[in-house]
Design brief:
292 residues; mainly alpha; two-stranded antiparallel ribbon; elongated
């Protein structure tokens, strides 16, 4: 049996759901500070705190419920982004506790800067001073907006979804994991679609011994997509498997070099009641080809 690379399996969805639920506590503490449990030190995962920090934009009223140094309240940004050299000169305790209301009283924010500023810091200081000079507090409460929803209201569903922003999606996940095939076969196909199997192309990149040509057809260079679809042996194999089911017209052609593409295209041509069985057949067939 060929080895399989199990790297890159990632973080379990339940762990991410836990982060999203933890974020609900942070939202209630920020949006409803009058609650009796607000202000309690509740441990949360660093990823939760980081996501929350970039997800909340504040419209300042009286400034009593907005942190001057860390919240996103000035032009939709936090001061760490606008003035990083100044921010680095402020003690951690003051970053976590100084509100906008306190900072604006007699320019208290200036006294929070405890280290010498370089020339870049001085430029940031002058720009920040100009911004503060035109900023006026009022008597209304601060309003915090969850920026990923048009309503501005936090939801666990929205938080969970945005933990995956920018991630690489896996299109055939439902066809794969909801099939009748054994788990080891599903795992193999997941890795094969992501080109994570130890075929000649990957072995060559790492300077490891590898066959010059596909051991099944001895005609082309070996990679996992070739083994499963475009190889002469593989196409004959799929013909023999599909012909008894009157599905020989679905066998992969020589021009197809992606197992996932062939699987999806063929799956769409079948009636709904036959699709789950076809999915299982494709997964088991790929597993057999890999182990020949």
């Amino acid at each position: 049996m060929r080895p399989i690379d199990l790297g890159g399996l990632g973080i379990h969805n339940l762990e991410i759901m836990g982060w999203a639920l933890q974020m609900r506590w942070l939202w209630i503490e920020k949006a409803k500070p009058d609650r009796p449990w607000a202000g309690l030190e509740v441990p949360v995962h660093p990823n939760t705190s980081a996501m929350f920090a970039i997800s909340i934009v504040t419209t300042v009223g009286n400034g009593r419920n907005t942190l001057f140094w860390t919240d996103r309240w000035l032009h939709g940004c936090c001061l760490e982004d606008l003035a990083p050299n100044i921010f680095s000169c402020v003690p951690l305790k003051l970053r976590r506790t100084r509100t906008v209301f306190e900072a604006m009283q007699d320019h208290t924010w200036v006294r929070d800067i405890r280290s010498a500023l370089g020339w870049r810091g001085l430029v940031e200081y002058l720009e920040l001073w100009d911004s503060m000079a035109g900023f006026v507090l009022n008597t209304t409460d601060d309003i915090h907006h969850w920026k990923f929803e048009a309503s501005g209201i936090y939801s666990t569903r929205s938080a969970y979804r945005n933990f995956f922003a920018g991630s690489i999606t896996f299109e055939p996940w439902k066809r794969l994991w909801k099939s009748w095939a054994p788990s080891k076969c599903k795992t193999f196909v997941w890795l094969a679609i992501r080109n994570r199997c130890w075929t000649a192309d990957r072995l060559e990149k790492r300077g490891l011994p590898h066959p010059d040509r596909c051991p099944l057809c001895d005609q082309e260079e070996e990679n996992v997509q070739h083994i499963l679809t475009s190889c002469v042996f593989a196409r004959q194999f799929w013909f023999e498997v599909l012909q008894p089911l009157n599905l020989s017209h679905l066998m992969p052609s020589r021009s197809i070099d992606s197992f996932a593409y062939w699987w999806r295209r063929s799956w769409k041509k079948l009636q709904k009641q036959h699709r789950k069985g076809f999915n299982s057949l494709c997964i088991l067939g790929a597993w057999i080809l890999w182990n020949i």
